Amino acid sequence: MNRATGVVTPFSTLEQAAEAVVQLIAPSADLGLWVVAKVEGDNWIPLAVLDSAYGFAKGAVFRWHATPGLHMAAGEAPLVAGNVAEVEVYQNADLQQHFEFKCYVGHPIHDGRGELFGTICGFDPQPQSIPVEAMIARLHSAAQVITTHLAHEELIEDTRRRAERAELESRTDPMTGVLNRRGWELAMEQEQGRIARTGSAAAVVLVDLDGLKRLNDSEGHDAGDALIRRLARVLSTQIRSRDVVARLGGDEFAMLLGGIDHSIAAQVVERIRGALDRARVAATLTWSWAGVLGSLDEALAEADALLIEHKKRHGRSA
């Protein structure tokens, strides 16, 4: 008699959910490659892969516009193509240059808000005879598992974010009212966990105030403190409720922009620069971005390296 071997626990990360879906859908058709991937800007990022035909490189990232999923998700091509020679946009997809496929099946994955999140798809180097209706039903169910996971995580994240915000508010810099260094470290930990659970993305911005020492020497520390507070106020007006501003020490500030695409992050950084210019606060800004497979610690290190390089090239108005 078969017996349960233990308690079934929920997935703790999006990657775990994606891996389970790949294992469940693979027996539906004997294809050489199954992939669950996220669409992030123009990147198609595999989250889970089951490969027996291609030697698919772990961590590979492809251009979304190069994949057959672009046309499939837009409703311009069929979900199931046993022979891609019969579907011109699949036959001519740029992804064929990376690995040749003669059979393709796929289904879009949407998040809890109904926005395109990614795709689940299968490839094979040979044409295959696939029962279309049965395969579409299985693909739909597999995509629905991911969508349900994302929707539940969004609801949980709302509650979690409110609790995290309350915890962060106890870790503030007394002069400026923004987070202190410990609050920043905690916010980074929280956002990294959110990236793993939901496949979101975030940007790290470093802000280094220029001219503070000169102002302290010429007009006194009260004037310098006033400038620091003005910088904090400007930064605080440029963020959403889910974002954070922190004073890391002295004249160094940091911002964490959660759930943001790379292109939007670039626009936000330029908006911050403009706000500082209008407030007549001279500061150096650098930033970096971490996607679904990225590390916020690495993003912070990259932004810091860019800041150091900027100072070497341009000097610093201390």
Please tell me about this protein's structure.
- This is diguanylate cyclase.
- InterPro entries: Diguanylate_Cyclase, GAF-like_dom_sf, GGDEF_dom, Nucleotide_cyclase, Rev_trsase/Diguanyl_cyclase.
- The protein has 2 domains: 14-154, Beta-Lactamase (2-Layer Sandwich); 169-314, 2-Layer Sandwich (Alpha-Beta Plaits), CATH 3.30.70.
- It has helices spanning 14-25, 69-73, 88-91, 132-168, 181-198, 212-219, 221-236, 262-278, 296-314; strands spanning 33-40, 43-51, 62-63, 80-81, 103-110, 116-124, 202-209, 244-249, 252-258, 283-290.
- The model has no long low-confidence stretch (mean pLDDT 89).
- The protein is of the alpha+beta class.
- A 6-stranded antiparallel β-sheet has the order 3-2-1-6-5-4. Strands 8-9-7-10 form a 4-stranded antiparallel β-sheet, sandwiched between helices.
- It is elongated, with a radius of gyration of 24 Å.
- Strand 1 (33-40) and strand 2 (43-51) form a beta hairpin.
